[in-house]
Amino acid sequence: MRSVFFFLLLLCGSPGASWAVDVAASVDPPVGRAGEEMQLSVVVTGASRNVQQPDLSELERHFRVYGSSTSRSVSIVNGRTTSSFTIRYTIVPIKEGSFTIPRLKVIHDGTEYYTDAIPVRVDAAGTPPPVAQGDETQSVVGGDRDLFVRATVDKSDPYLFEQVTYRFFFYHRVPLIDNPNLTAPSTQGFWKEDIPARSSYEETVDGIRYNVSEVVYALFPTTPGELTIGEANLVATQSVRRKRDRFSVFGDVYSGKKRVLSTEPIKINVKRLPENAPPGFKGAVGDYVISARVDKATVNQGDPLTLRLTVSGNGNIETVGDVELPNLTDFRTYSQSKESSSTPRGNSISGRLSQEIVLVPLSAGPKTIPPIPLVTFSPRTGTYKTLQTRPIALNVIPGTGEVVAGLEAESRGGIEVVGNDIRFIETEVPSFASISQGTRSALWWFSLLPVSGLAYGGLWVAERRRRRLGSDVALRRRSKAAKAARKALNAAREESELEARASQVALALRGYLADRWNVQAAGLTGDDIAARLSQSSIDGTDLVSLLERCDAAQFAPGAVGSADDLHQQALTWVDTLEDQL
């Protein structure tokens, strides 16, 4: 009996020694490289299950912090029981230098414990092979000879509203486990349009054959001065072969190594347009042509005809605005409709503006619509140009219908008596009998008059709104934004995987914001969203954080919380923005 008791005593050990809590942190490897993964481990020895993870916000100045994983172990050595709780984080250095991971606070059962500070040295990323620059401005790239990125612009000193073509290239010669994830650069101060890039291709650089993927944007600066195109970040998972045990019967073992590659920001110096612009210049920047035509060359006096103006060419067509007509004294003018569209053509954005004006001739005879001018600025030549349409000849036939106001009416003839001139006058007041049935019936019908008026008014308002939505794309997108977002969020509930659901939530939120602002969802970065919300006096920090958590779920699902929490926050933001925007 005593031997059994002695064995149990050895197995349990002393309570104070077995469950004394100690915390420690380590980094592997101790010397890292910019853009490559490192692992931060926090070990809590002697811990129970009630451990609160440390706050790593101070690390984010020098490191990107991705998802965490946890493990627990219990060991018995010489009769002493020891438990440990380990939290592992993936961290990626942003730049080279010597840094210190500060003391981390761990709370266990309400008591605070601190790790020691850890010095970390980060070397520069491997130097990629040189690439031909031509006339392009190239940012500093991140990567090594296996995979790297670079970004270029075709000009660094454009005029205001002149197109700047931004290209992002991803070179790799090693296998990848999944599709890379690109975070587009911040383009605050630019109007951005996507340009379809050619599909993946091969290119030889410094004697090495690479697979190349490309993303292209057309950027139009909207303010003069120095602007910055932010860094573009690409996350790729590289397939790495691990060392094989010589006694293993299996072949080589491969695993994934996550790489974060970044370009450096690119400075753009935007020049103001030259002074002394010709009269009539309203900001149309680009290389355009203008034309005009009418739907009929012969028209009756007082009958309408349609004048169609078309402006097309390379540039941001939104800068053209309304084309003003010269003084047309022989016509009344009514503006009818205006449509604009942009289409990528090669490496440029081509735009087309169509404007329709209704003209009503006031007098008969040969008429001429004089040349219609449009003043533009051509960035290609650096000069202002005055474009003109050709004059249009019209033949106006004297009208046979009602006389146009303002013209002298035809002389009237004599008074013609039709039938009896004056009818018989009653000399006695007739006696009317009161019929209550008829009175009640009349009152019933009179009571329906307001209802019919309201019904007609409702139909008129609905029809006016329908026509307005049909002609105003921005209004149509804005009016349907919330409904489309809630529908997309409800559909996201069907996703069982956190990664897929978080992706659908992010798409729904970005789609909602794009519809509210009438922009493309693909061009909405966190900086753009925060800046636009700030203009409406809305703090978008939490919304941007929510989108970043959804994006992080693609490669670190353990760090973003529950899917229901992301979903509910997204619905709350849609309701909030509907009230405040």
From TrEMBL:
It holds the Pfam family DUF4381. InterPro entries: BatD, DUF4381. The chain crosses the membrane at residues 442-462. Keywords: Membrane, Signal, Transmembrane, Transmembrane helix. The keyword Glycoprotein does not apply. Residues 1-20 form the signal peptide. The keyword Transmembrane applies. PANTHER family: BATD (PTHR40940:SF2), PROTEIN BATD-RELATED (PTHR40940). This is Protein BatD.
